Amino acid sequence: MVKSNASNPDQYDRASELKAFDETKAGVKGLVDAGITELPPIFHQPADKIQKYPVLRDTQFSIPVIDLERVKEDPSIRKEIVDKVGNASRKWGFFQVVNHGIPVNVLEEMKDGVRRFYEQDDELKKQYYTFSKPVVYNSNYDLYAGLAVNWRDTFSSFMAPNPPKVEDLPPVCRDIMVEYSKQVQALGYLLLELLSEALGLKRDHLKEMDCAKGLLMLCHYYPACPQPELALGISKHADNDFITVLLQDHIGGLQVLHEDKWIDVPPAPGALVINIGDLLQLISNDAFISVEHRVVANSVGPRVSVACFFSTSVIPNSRLYGPIKELLSEENPPKYRETTVTEYAIYSNGRGLDVDGHSHLLHFRL
Ligand SMILES: O=C(O)CCC(=O)C(=O)O
Ligand SMILES: [Fe+2]
Prior knowledge:
This protein has 366 residues and is of the alpha+beta class. Helices cover 28% and strands 18% of the residues. The longest helix has 25 residues. Its cofactor is Fe cation. It holds the Pfam family 2OG-FeII_Oxy.
């Protein structure tokens, strides 16, 4: 157990508390199971980090929800959908989709599978608490590097193009991980078509650039927090991929930074949240924006979510990605130098922002 010293958070041995927490291999859920009633200091966010931007709760400002029904059948409906996807990707960098083709029972089973993973016996879970297996479970991947530990546990696995052997996936959720990742990849390809068309490119342009070839699945668990106002589930970051498809449950907590205000992304039944990652901002030459987001801690959880990152960062790949030539003109010269997905991943080191809290994209700007 990590001893708590929340009444005097400045006077504690941070390094040894981090190590003690890490060595439990039981994550944040382990602390909750042990019955803590105060937030241990390693989780305390600096107050200015939590409150820097106001939270705006105004229905006038909300992430667009786009209905994909009949997108493949009716060209005039498709055109409307493409316009909506383009507008949302330019203005918000985020949107939700409904009628996306993934059945509700698959979404429910995926969330149940994540709950089963975390709620199984600690001893079974601990075997994945390592960076040397295809499925990596830990609390925060950047436990020792972050300013404050996030109130969250995560397990992750690359699911495409080279998925792990089935026996390497956790038995309690392996079938649904395989099924869901296949369906998400198909949706990823459809989204790339719509995004290509919204950029005025031919339908297969982004697909042919391999933007949905690689898929990293991150399964998050945000236990109920004893002092949610002092912690964050995920601190402010942007995603370092092409696009992300996020499945969230009914609890909520995801917020998007829009015009210097945090806007809630309300859970909608059957919906998936889509966001533009840094690499798509780069190749679209800033037409689409990769927007910072965070998850606040909650007192009613556990909340579960599954983030599917489309990126090929683990495949050795020398393919260069720069602003797409067809989008450039005298009035729209390239804003970024070319990079590889691997270089971008190494540069961002899996972290959503640089040490000063700025986007890693700035480093690649011409
Ligand atoms: O859990 C969520 O709602 C967001 C997760 C997220 O932002 C991420 O995995 O990058
Ligand atoms: Fe994210």
